[in-house]
Every structure is written in structure tokens, then in C-alpha cells.
Write a structure and sequence with these properties.
Blueprint lengths: L28 H9 L12 H17 L7 E6 L2 H11 L5 E5 L2 H12 L7 E4 L16 E5 L1 E2 L4 E2 L13 E5 L16 E4 L11 E6 L1 H11 L11 H8 L10 H16 L3 H20 L4 E3 L11 E6 L5 H10 L15 E5 L6 H18 L1
Parallel strand pairs: 2-3, 2-4, 4-7, 7-8
Antiparallel strand pairs: 1-9, 5-6, 8-9, 10-11, 11-12
Length: 376
């Protein structure tokens, strides 16, 4: 075995941009240039004035176009990321009892938030082992179904289909934090399709966005009219009323809004979801083909249809220390390909969000091939 302390990957193999993290994700140079240009006109200005409000409106219109939102659906945003939205849903969208599909760390967190709420009944929970897929099933005594489009911790991708027996009074809440913008979706199959901006939208965290159906808005208004105590920060109707004014309850991260607006515009100008999903299919496909060609590697998600287009998880043979591979990669400028820490697997986790160029994935593969050959 070579002395890994001295391993320097040939520069001719390295990707132009070595960021392959599952969130926060890489930001395109054009986004950073736009941020610089806006430094004196938007940054450091009031979020209640036109400069920032126009920015929010630009994002809301862009997301409506990107997802081809059905008539009546609205783009709502609020302070805090997906974690804040889980508590918002528990406070403002779940009437009595919800069903949760948990296929990893993040889908489990929403179920735990619902279970902890004193005003709700214990949720129904459908669980599967990490790396496998489970789907919601019709259940008469729940008023909301909750599941994830893409489980970031494991790289499992779910089809977005309203449960066959779901009634008009049962909401479908889809956590799309790492799926939105990089995976195909029919928004009409959901009532709330929510996400944070630090994955496919190549921005920072601290905000949540949601495409919401008339039924979801009606539910929130119904609950808000009861005697349930809802903190203002977790009030969906408060977020809705502010969004309709192109603003947020509290001061938003303006830099995040700028980065996201540029990314949404880039997506739409290049063909919308048809463009982004074709790109993520290509880049993830390169990784899948690579793994299948090396005996030391195995795709963690064994069911091909459940393999994510935006997060690929790869198990390494026990004879190879994944931590050593990622250490060498990081020393050579290839960063954030470590596995999700709580899984505790000898694994790589590689994100291929829309900002990741296919040529960089090809270079990543060449670089990792070189490292694995040196360590063999």
C-alpha cells in the first residue's frame, strides 16, 4: 500500500470545482458575481422596501414557473429552514393526527416533532431500514401524510404520488429539501411541497419555501381560527400573509435570496425542470456506472428505482478505509464526500445537484479511481 500521507492526485485528473457536498451545496460563480454586483444596492437595505421585496417576488414567480404550479397554488416562504417548517406544520397544518414515512434521519425528525406535540395524537409511522424505500398508505384516521422526496442521509428517492385512497380532507406534505429542483415532480400530487434553499438552489440556509395548494391554505386558516396556541414564528397564516406582500415575518438572509433568485433564473432560462432533471440523471448515472465497474464499491441503495439522482451513497469494501479516501480527497481539494455521520457506514456520499457539471463528476471519478488504485 502506498503511503497515503504523500498522495497527491495528479492535477490533470482533478475537477475544476471540487465541491460535492449534500448541503450546503456548491454555488455557481455566476451567482457569486451577482451577489457582488448587488452589494451596494440590495445588501444592507431594508427588507420592507422594494429592492428586497422585488427579489422575493422574483423568486416566487420563478418557482411558480419552474414547478408549473397548478392554478390556486401559492409560493409561501418563511424564516428558518426545514426544521422550522416541521414545527410550523405541527402547529398550523396537522389538525389531529398525521402519518409519517421515515426512511432516514431527516424524515424521522418530522415524525418526532409530531409525536412531541401535546395537542396532537401520536402519529402513525411507517418505517424502513436506511437505504430502502417505504411509501405512505391510505389511512382513514389521519388528516395529513408526510414523507420525503429525497432522503438526504441515505440517497433514497421517493416517487411523489398522492395515496390512492386519500380524501380531499387529507393533506400530502412532501419534504423536498434535497429533491426540489433536481427531481421530477407533479406538484398537483402534493398539498405542500416544501424545501430549504441550500441544496439544488445553491444558496445558504435559514429560509423555507413551499408550494401550497388551496386545501393546505384552507387548513391553515381553519386551525388559526381555533383556540390552538400558535407562536407567530410558526404560524403558517402569518408566513402566507407576509409572502403575499413579498416579504417575511423577520429579516431574511438577503444574500440567500440573491443566490437563490439567480439559481432559479438559471434553471428556468435553460429549460426548467426538464433541464435540471436531465442533468442530475446524467451526473448520478455516471456515478452509478462507475460503482458497477469496480469490485470494491457497492451502491448502498439496492433498488434501482429508489436510487437518488441528487445524492449517491456508495459502500466501500471493508479492506478500504473510506475515511482515508475522503481525507486524501479533501487534501487535494475534493471536499464533502464523507458519509452521513449517524449512519456509521464505510461509505462515500456524493451530491450531484444541478449546479454540478457533468465534466466535474467525470473528473471526480478519475481522481477517486487514482486514489483507490494507489491504496490497493
Amino acid at each position: 500500500m502506498s503511503n497515503s500521507q504523500t498522495l497527491t492526485i495528479p492535477s490533470t485528473l482533478l475537477p475544476t470545482d471540487g465541491r460535492f457536498g449534500s448541503g450546503p451545496s456548491r454555488v455557481r460563480p455566476e451567482q457569486m458575481a451577482a451577489l457582488d454586483r448587488a452589494g451596494r444596492t440590495v445588501m444592507g437595505t431594508s427588507h420592507r422596501q422594494p429592492a428586497v421585496k422585488n427579489l422575493v417576488g422574483r423568486i416566487r414567480r420563478g418557482l411558480t414557473d419552474l414547478f408549473d404550479a397548478p392554478d390556486g397554488y401559492e409560493v409561501v416562504l418563511g424564516n428558518g429552514g426545514a426544521t422550522a417548517f416541521w414545527d410550523t406544520a405541527v402547529s398550523s397544518l396537522i389538525r389531529t393526527r398525521s402519518q409519517h414515512v421515515t426512511i432516514g434521519e431527516f424524515s424521522q425528525k418530522f415524525a418526532e416533532a409530531a409525536a412531541a406535540a401535546p395537542h396532537l395524537q401520536d402519529p402513525s409511522v411507517i418505517s424502513s431500514a436506511p437505504g430502502t424505500l417505504a411509501l405512505p398508505t391510505g389511512e382513514a384516521d389521519v388528516d395529513a401524510y408526510a414523507y420525503a422526496h429525497n432522503e438526504t442521509s441515505t440517497g433514497v428517492m421517493s416517487p411523489i404520488i398522492r395515496p390512492h385512497s386519500a380524501t380531499d380532507d387529507q393533506l400530502v406534505l412532501v419534504d423536498a429539501t434535497s429533491g426540489a429542483g433536481g427531481l421530477s415532480v407533479d406538484i398537483e400530487q402534493t398539498d405542500v411541497y416544501y424545501f430549504s434553499p441550500q441544496k439544488s438552489f445553491a444558496a445558504d440556509g435559514g429560509l423555507w419555501f413551499a408550494l401550497c395548494s388551496p386545501a393546505a391554505i384552507s387548513r391553515a386558516e381553519e386551525i388559526a381560527a381555533t383556540d390552538r396556541w400558535i407562536p407567530q414564528f410558526l404560524s403558517f397564516t402569518t408566513a402566507l400573509s407576509n409572502s403575499r406582500k413579498d416579504q417575511t415575518l423577520n429579516t431574511p438572509a438577503t444574500a440567500t435570496l440573491l443566490l437563490m433568485a439567480e439559481q432559479v433564473d438559471w434553471m428556468n432560462k435553460n429549460g426548467g425542470l426538464d433541464f435540471t432533471t436531465a442533468r442530475t440523471a446524467e451526473t448520478s448515472g455516471l456515478l452509478h456506472q462507475w460503482v458497477e465497474g469496480r469490485d470494491e464499491l457497492t451502491l448502498f441503495v439496492t433498488e434501482p428505482s429508489a436510487r437518488s439522482q441528487v445524492v449517491t451513497t456508495i459502500d466501500l469494501d471493508s479492506a478500504i478505509d473510506a475515511a482515508e479516501v475522503t481525507r486524501i480527497a479533501r487534501a487535494n481539494g475534493i471536499i464533502d464526500i464523507e458519509p452521513y455521520r449517524k449512519l456509521g457506514r464505510n461509505q462515500l456520499r456524493i451530491a450531484t445537484f444541478p449546479a454540478v457539471d457533468p465534466s466535474d463528476v467525470q473528473a471526480l471519478i478519475a481522481s477517486l479511481d487514482w486514489v483507490l488504485d494507489q491504496l490497493s
